[in-house]
Design brief:
Elements: H1 2-11, H2 13-40, H3 55-84, E1 89-90, E2 96-97, H4 105-111, H5 118-134, H6 143-149, H7 156-170, H8 173-180, H9 200-212
Antiparallel strand pairs: 1-2
Helix pairs in contact: 2-3, 2-8, 3-4, 3-5, 3-7
Length: 216
């Protein structure tokens, strides 16, 4: 049952597309915040936190986080395509095939036969470095990468636009619609929900019951 559930989720292309969309939404907000910090230097978050930082430090930090989310969004997006085309699959022994580790975005795009121009390739290489190293750690994963990419980053706005371009051109029509538009999953929630009225205790009871039944 556990293996069947895993296989079902792994092969469900719509879940990969929705996760990519979710990460893009979050990145979109972070880019907006970073642009506001860069253009105005107005750091309202400092009013609610004991962390003290320079506005440029805040801008750099938020931009780095946005790049991390964009890298993960692109990874989910390309995996959805490769699974749909059965270039990534689960064999009869329940082994995942065609999946490359290391968050190598350029390798994944090459596997998808997506054509990148020279400038786009360079941006994907930089995004991969952000995803593998710079957005999470202070150093690269090996000396070669350290020497190649130290001091090099790219604008998250440029990456955001590139990921959107890839989504338009790579995804099938149905998955592109799913990526670009919210489905009916949230129709029952008001557009302006009052999160202060969420019954926290009741939610915790439900979560606890799900955990006891092995669903979490």
């Amino acid at each position: 049952m556990k293996q069947e559930l895993f296989n079902e989720y792994f092969l469900d292309v719509t879940r990969w597309v929705k996760k990519s969309r979710e990460l893009m939404i979050a990145a979109n907000y972070l880019i907006g915040i970073s642009n506001g910090l860069f253009n105005t230097g107005n750091d309202v978050i400092n009013n609610y936190s004991k962390l003290q930082y320079h506005p440029f430090e805040a801008w750099a930090s938020v931009s780095s986080a946005a790049s991390l989310l964009l890298g993960l969004a692109l990874e989910n997006l390309v995996k959805s395509h490769l699974i749909e085309k059965e270039k990534i699959y689960i064999d009869k022994n329940n082994k995942v095939k065609g999946l490359h580790g290391g968050h190598d975005l350029l390798k994944m795009l090459n596997d998808s036969d997506y054509s990148l121009n020279e400038n786009e390739q360079e941006n994907i290489k930089l995004l991969t470095f952000q995803l593998q190293s710079l957005s999470k750690y202070h150093l690269a994963k090996n000396p070669t990468k350290q020497a190649e990419f130290t001091g090099r980053t790219t604008n998250p706005v440029t990456i955001y636009n590139l990921v959107m371009k890839i989504a338009h051109e790579l995804l099938s029509e149905n998955n592109r619609k799913l990526f670009l538009n919210s489905d009916d999953s949230y129709d029952h929630i008001p557009l302006k929900p009052n999160f202060t009225e969420i019954p926290t205790k009741e939610i915790l009871k439900i979560v606890d019951a799900l955990r006891k039944n092995g669903h979490l």
